[in-house]
Amino acid sequence: xxAPWWQGLxxxxxxxxxxxxxxRGLELxxxxxxxxxxxxxxxxxxxxxxxxxxxxxxxxxSAPEVGLIEHMLGEAxxxxxxxxxxxxxxxxxxxxxxxxxAGILGAAPNMQALxxxxxxxxxxxxxxxxxxxxxxxxxxxxxxIHTRSLRSGHxxxxxxxxxxxxxxxxxxxFGHKRGAFTGAVSDKAGLFETADLGTFFLDEIGDMSPxxxxxxxxxxxxxxxxxxxxxxxxxxxxxxxxxxxRDLTAMVREGSYREDLFYRINVINVTLPALRERRGxxxxxxxxxxxxxxxxxxxxxxxxxxxxxxxxxxxxxxxxVRELENxxxxxxxxxxxxxxxxxxxxxxxxRTYTPDPDAIADGDVxxxxxxxxxxxxxxxxxxxxxxxxxxxxAAEELKVSRRxxxxxVQKYELE
Length: 415
Fold this sequence. Notes:
Rossmann fold; Helicase, Ruva Protein, domain 3; 3-stranded antiparallel β-sheet; 16 helices; 16 strands; about 15% strand
């Protein structure tokens, strides 16, 4: 008998969905074919609607309940579909090279180094400081560290320190006692208590006031704190992962950030590469984002034209992966029922961007052969664009044979 598609698959991505459904008296089931009595069903990416998928068995579901469950199943099916492709593609990868890791996508050398660092850091209880530009995936990395740690069975709690004023953040982090301030009608536990035994991700920790810096430092050093308006000392066991896009070293020099807190959170420093420093991953990310959009009927089977893809490869992406993801969603919507997304649909800032032909961004290449390939690809792409895809004329301009040009176009997937 053929083994089920989920055999050997890491199904941790489904735990949250299963827990939510069980609290509603429903059961998540992995099936080879669409069941006749399922309240909701999601086919895996690439499967037929009646093929393998995720089903929820539950009688007399209302229309809103079915809609909510189908949305949850759609998200879970995408995660499982990606995991299945990871498993199937793994034998074809170069030795030690990973395309996906713990939900993070990237095959560039600096991403391989990041994966290795996460593997070394995750099993420890050391505090981690993640630095990088907006949109580079700091929370994704923090979650990867948590899921591969010994605390993975406990909560992963997230808060953004820049989203609250000082008083609200104090209550959010440490909780408050009834009557501590106007509106405190009952005792409230803070996020540090919620994250006890788990991991607490403090995003944008550089925006925290000096007063709260002192309280966070105490938790890091002693594991104790007081709720707002309370005298009782409470103790927690929490691993802290912090993140910021600010230069904390400069802030320490200026006196706006406590030096002792900086050194306490900067035990392990993880710096995420900007997307322009790993341009080779753009095509990989585009494919993943298109796949994610394929849950919409109009988005299935869409692909970018060669000119559109080339524009994406040339653009520096100041907003990093988040900006690219938003652009792909925009393109899918604007392209309507067209199977091929044209260059003309790109946002004006991307469509009109002109790269410096003499510039090669740091991190794009790590060897002379790679630099030669990068230049070769850029010149061929530009010539093909100038001659509207006419290989004979492009070959004449580049002073190579047409046969050789065809080989290079296929090699660099510029068709």
